[in-house]
Amino acid sequence: MAEKKVEAITSMEEDFAQWYTDVVLKADLIGYTSVKGFMVLKPAGYAIWELIQHELDRRFKETGVENVYLPLLIPESLLQKEKDHVEGFAPEVAWVTHGGLSELQERLCVRPTSETLFCDFYQKDITSYRDLPKVYNQWCSVVRWEKETRPFLRSREFLWQEGHTAHATAEEAEERTIQMLNVYADFCEQVLAIPVIKGQKSEKEKFAGAVSTYTIEALMHDGKALQSGTSHNFGDGFARAFGVQYTDKENKLQYVHQTSWGMTTRLIGAIIMVHGDDNGLVMPPRVAPTQVMVVPIQQKKEGVLDAADQIAASLSGLRVKVDKTDKSPGFKFAEQEMRGIPIRLEIGPRDVEAGQVICVRRDTGEKETLSIESLPEVIPQLLETIQKDMLEKARAHRDAHTYVAKTWDEFTDTVENRPGFIKAMWCGETACEEKIKELTGATTRCMPFKQENLADTCVCCGKPAKKMVYFGRAY
User: Fold this and answer.
1) What does the alpha-carbon distance between residue 172 and residue 64 come to, in Å, rounded to a whole number?
2) What order of strands is seen across the sheet that includes strand 320-322?
3) Rounded-to-integer distance, Cα 174 and Cα 374, Å
4) Which terminal CB of the chain, N or C, has fewer other CB atoms within 10 Å?
5) Can you state the angle between helices 43-62 and 170-190, rounded to 10 degrees?
């Protein structure tokens, strides 16, 4: 039984895309629905999101963020007020045209993002410098009518948080934009065990209506990049479009400066693609819905279930379950590997007599025998070790798949034959960026804050280089 369970997953090396879909479905994270691109987050998938949400929310609030909730629908006239913004989202918008049986006088857009609603709200709510800053966030879903959909990575409706802030000065807005990007980067590394590159998006890749967009970019196991969180500085562009003004200390009218920043359920896709293997998920302990699974062997034998329950009770403060199902041990092991549970503790009649358990790590498969009395001390330490080791392994993989290209031939050869991040110099021209994408399928992922001078000329056109850029093919 156990082998069959594992064999049901396509090998990563054989077909990474199919492997990903197999893991998502067989680990019971997602269910498809009658509407294409709209998916059910099953308990196993939603539990991961709850832990992400809980941890992110705590970090936000430590920086002074307050949660609010704004409406789902946006009047078309409101969306039209910021020209670049509406053009950026127009192809993906879903529209509501009827209320009951009556046609609406004005179409309503199902929110693809909420900048316009927040501006409308701030315009009514902000009058004086004493009202600033406004540092708000909302947890909600948004709808974007994507052509191609994939579980977690691109769905037509997805869950996210969107932060929206208003400030008195440009400096404060920029400071908040960078602060939230750093919150995201720390969260990815410390909680998801995913190393990221921090940097700025190019003009072409920045958010519609933003002055500047900052991003964290992660590298998946197959060498493709994944944008994992973005933070945008809007300057006063939206404020001017929507008339969001305040009276300063000199009693003069000023426009506010705004930011927005977001992370989505695509982070679950990142966890799968950075840490997973041919047996399924490998969950970082800090976002594993179950951190320890106790598996009683020959559970009908006297004392086995009692011992399993006592072990679970002794690990208070951890997320622990006992698998009391009547499936065979081999099937249980395979199932728990599929779900990525960080630690498995096996206990049978002989172990009960000896006062011990067999402890198995999901990330490495290492087994060791531990005394039952040592578990309350050893297991929390082991979970921390697993968390740290998973980050180091992911960082080593990323670094081993980050390449330098100084010439066009090196660049094209790397894109085709060595999937990963490519560091290269760029002239800063959008035309050059578009040519690179057209010819190779690689896009500018970010201009990293940590700049290096790899060469004097652009890798594509040979003009003087302005920035070192991370390029890559991406999800």
Assistant:
1) 14
2) 320-322, 292-296, 343-347, 356-361, 367-371
3) 50
4) N
5) 140
